[in-house]
Request: fold
Amino acid sequence: MYLVEGENGGMEVTARELLRVLSEVAPGLSYWAFINRELAAALRRGRVRFPEGIAPIEVPARGRFRPSWLFAEQTILPLLARRMGIRLLHSLGSTSPAWGPYARVVTIHDVIHARFPGAFRPLSRWALQGLLFTAAHRAQRVITVSNWSKRDIVEVLRVEPQKVEVVYPGAAPPRPADQQAIARIERLLDRRGRRLIFTPAADRPHKNLRRLVEALLVFNPESRPLLAITGATRTHGASLWRYVEQLGLQDDVKLLGWLSDVELEAVWSVADALVFPSLYEGFGLPVIEAMARSVPVACSRATALPEAAGEAALLFDGEEPREIAAAIDRILSDEALRKRLITVGQRRAAEFSWRRTAEQTVAVYARALGFSEPPAAWFSPTRAAAGGVR
Reply:
């Protein structure tokens, strides 16, 4: 119920892409998606469409206000699911109902509240720990997105390791470039021949954007690359922008906010490199998204990022602005390195597909329902079982 039109964080991308391919992989299952008011309104207005085979069910909750959808998840959703006779509920956003007569699968992306406690108010951190602990222990199966996250979940939530299954996210193939969108983005960037480094990240402490901004100071002003950040604006990233102004880098940083899929593809198409300094990631989806688009990657060596990147990225210590700057300089100036990273990155991205993610997810559904493997009927277009995702 957290999915909102136009927002492109890791959880949102995972939910959209999984919904897109799930009914193709196992058309014998029946699927319902429990959605919030904002997404339902966008659906009615024709701004979004649901994939064939997925039936959206509106729940009276606000997707942009976490307490609203968490409350509905614990109260309204179990009643709806029981009334509809759902056999399995897959919760994609780390929390799930504490009760209900159905099997449960929950995807827990990370336990960042325990690793970056300063990013949460004490009450929110306490509530989140309780909700995740309950979700993990009530579910028949827990899905997470990396081996790193599995170890973290087992340690923080004290859940049995054999109950937690790693299902990697996919890398969606790039869409054809929209020349008008590219022209709009170029006007917005106004980079005047400068190299462009790109970071898709909201202004949250673990995303480590301030260290990335500080790395720009290492460059001479005349050779300094332009940094574009999506997910933050001067309004919704006000403290970050104040820091940019404090350092005198207003002409070197562009905060682009949330972009449409078409606009985001336009940014990817003009970016010279992805520089991803995050200090905590459950997986690090932008890393393989960049590789799929032939954009060379430099990223932090923290948490799950080396697992996502493999040998296809230049790694740095995200706590050290000079090391970040050195990685940026190498990835922009060393043409042989760039070509190698692009080639190896394309191969790396090909190892991740949303179809494979959906196939592995369906296998988890089977185990949650007590099957050793998915029944053959699930792969027939004749409806064989009831299931629900939210």
User: Anything to note?
Assistant: DSSP finds 15 helices and 13 strands in the chain. The chain has a mean pLDDT of 92. The first helix runs from residue 10 to 25.
